[in-house]
Amino acid sequence: MRPLAIEETPPEGTDLDWEVQAILAFHDDDAKAAIETLLLDCKYLRHQLALAESVLSRGITRGWSPKYEREV
Q1: Contact indicator for 65, 53 with CB cutoff of 8 Å
Q2: Domain presence at residue 5
Q3: Could you tell me which of 11, 14, 16 has the C-alpha nearest to residue 24?
Q4: What's the domain count of the chain?
Q5: SS (H, E, C) the chain
Q6: 30-56 pLDDT, tens per residue?
Q7: Domain presence at residue 10
């Protein structure tokens, strides 16, 4: 794995293809490792969302509640 270099910063209005290529490059084109990392990131972020939901009052969020699945 290698970090992205500064000159590899995407242009304004980044498209999804660039992000996919960046993820694969970070994992030396190992798609399985890239998917594993993304799934672990999703799991971690869902856990963080659950923690935030448990400690925030409805007044602070003005009635907003998190959704754990994205709407397509």
Answers
A1: yes
A2: no
A3: 16
A4: 1
A5: CCCCCHHHCCCCCCCHHHHHHHHHHHCCCCHHHHHHHHHHHHHHHHHHHHHHHHHCCCCCCCCCCCCCCCCC
A6: 999 999 999 999 999 999 888 888 877
A7: no
As given in the structure block, the two tokens for residue 61 are 């969020």
Residues whose CB falls within 8 Å of the CB of residue 2, separated by 6 or more in sequence, listed in order: 25, 26, 28
Q: Is 6 inside any structural domain?
A: no
Q: Answer whether 0.85 is exceeded by the pTM.
A: no
The per-residue pLDDT of the chain, averaged, comes to 80
Range of the domain at 53: 31-72
